């Protein structure tokens, strides 16, 4: 199986009226539960957009995000599935629940620890 990152930009949900927020949250939690029940869920969550720490190769820490950053990830889900097609199916379910487009990327193999 392969892990895929399904994500959306921080402002992708700005078009949703505040009063519809609870319904979106309920729909998103339902998709997460469905992924858990299917055994493909790894983790998910939202990310703060205004603060980040940038750690340089020399260990220097500065406040971020980088000023030239145009897009910041707002939320993500990681699934462990057998194919890109299956990851795209989960992304479609998340897109409907969250009412915004989703980006899908495969995780490259990491170094063995």
Tell me what the structure shows.
- With 113 residues, this protein is of the alpha+beta class.
- The protein has a single domain, classed as Alpha-Beta Plaits (2-Layer Sandwich).
- Helix content is 29%, strand content 31%.
- It contains two helices and six strands.
- The strands form two sheets. Strands 2-5-1-6 form a four-stranded antiparallel β-sheet, with helices on one face. A two-stranded antiparallel sheet has the order 3-4.
- β3 and β4 form a beta hairpin.
- α1 runs antiparallel to α2.
- The longest helix has 18 residues.
- The two termini are 19 Å apart.
- The mean pLDDT is 91.
Features:
single chain; 113 residues; alpha+beta; Alpha-Beta Plaits; four-stranded antiparallel β-sheet; two-stranded antiparallel sheet; 2 helices; 6 strands; 29% helix; 31% strand
Task: Map the helices and strands.
Layout: E1 2-9, H1 21-38, E2 41-46, E3 52-55, E4 61-64, E5 73-81, H2 84-98, E6 103-106
Antiparallel strand pairs: 1-5, 1-6, 2-5, 3-4
Helix pairs in contact: 1-2
Kindly state the mean pLDDT as a whole number? Answer: 91
* CATH domain class name: Alpha Beta
- Classify the beta-strand content into a percent band: 25-35%
N/C terminus separation: 19 Å
Shape: flat
Give the count of helical stretches. Answer: 2
**CATH fold category name:** Alpha-Beta Plaits
Helix percent band: 25-40%
**Beta-strand segment tally:** 6
User: What is the domain total for the residues?
Assistant: 1
Order of helices and strands: EHEEEEHE
Main pleated sheet: 4 strands, antiparallel
């Amino acid at each position: 199986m392969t892990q895929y990152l399904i994500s959306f930009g921080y402002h992708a949900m700005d078009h949703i009226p505040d009063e519809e927020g609870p319904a979106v949250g309920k729909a998103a939690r339902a998709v997460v539960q469905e992924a858990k029940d299917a055994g493909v869920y790894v983790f998910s969550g939202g990310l703060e957009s205004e603060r980040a720490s940038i750690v340089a190769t020399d260990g220097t820490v500065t406040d971020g995000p980088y000023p030239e950053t145009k897009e910041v990830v707002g939320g993500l889900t990681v699934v462990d599935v057998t194919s890109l097609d299956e990851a795209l199916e989960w992304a479609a379910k998340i897109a409907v629940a969250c009412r915004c487009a989703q980006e899908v990327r495969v995780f490259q193999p990491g170094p063995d620890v």
